[in-house]
Design brief:
By secondary structure, the chain is mostly helical. It contains seven helices and two strands. Helix 1 runs parallel beside helix 3. The two termini are 18 Å apart.
């Protein structure tokens, strides 16, 4: 077990660092830099390590959420033009839009009286199978990197 000294005064054992941060920095300077990066004033207690872990996790969570928000804002809704053809505004919510499309197309198909309209609605249904296909269904957004990988940036 080794000790890490921060600011030449405060000492932390590698066991404590590992238990709170899940990894041990390569040097005392790396730990000191992590405290500085997150504006935590060391006092030599394990509360410092708790604060450091909480600050790192909060920053990581903000970055991940921002990346997810950016990805969602840039996402093009593959079925938007299909919905617009029958008068539905696509929301980007796959399940809601798919249900709204099916309800609308069913109502419109029931009112179709001639063969041309029926063929048109059949074509829309066919197009919907591609637009609402599984390849276009958004998955739950995932973090671009794991928290451990993010945390490792500050422990080098």
């Amino acid at each position: 077990m080794s000790n890490f000294t921060v600011n030449g005064v405060y000492s932390y054992t590698s066991a404590n660092i590992y238990s709170y941060l899940g990894r041990v920095p390569v040097s005392s300077r790396a730990l000191e830099r992590a405290f500085d990066d997150f504006d935590i004033t060391p006092t030599g207690t394990t509360d410092d390590l708790k604060k450091l872990n909480a600050a790192m996790y909060e920053e990581y969570s903000k970055q991940v959420q921002q990346q997810i928000d950016n990805q969602n804002n840039q996402q093009v809704i593959p079925w938007a033009s299909l919905c617009a053809q029958i008068g539905i505004q696509a929301t980007g919510d796959y399940d809601k839009d798919y249900a709204a499309f099916n309800n609308a197309i069913q109502l419109l198909s029931q009112s179709a009286v001639d063969g041309q309209a029926m063929t048109y609605f059949a074509g829309l249904r066919s197009e919907a199978s591609q637009a609402f296909g599984l390849s276009n269904k958004p998955e739950a957004a995932e973090a671009p990197i794991s928290y451990r990988a993010y945390q490792a940036q500050f422990m080098r």
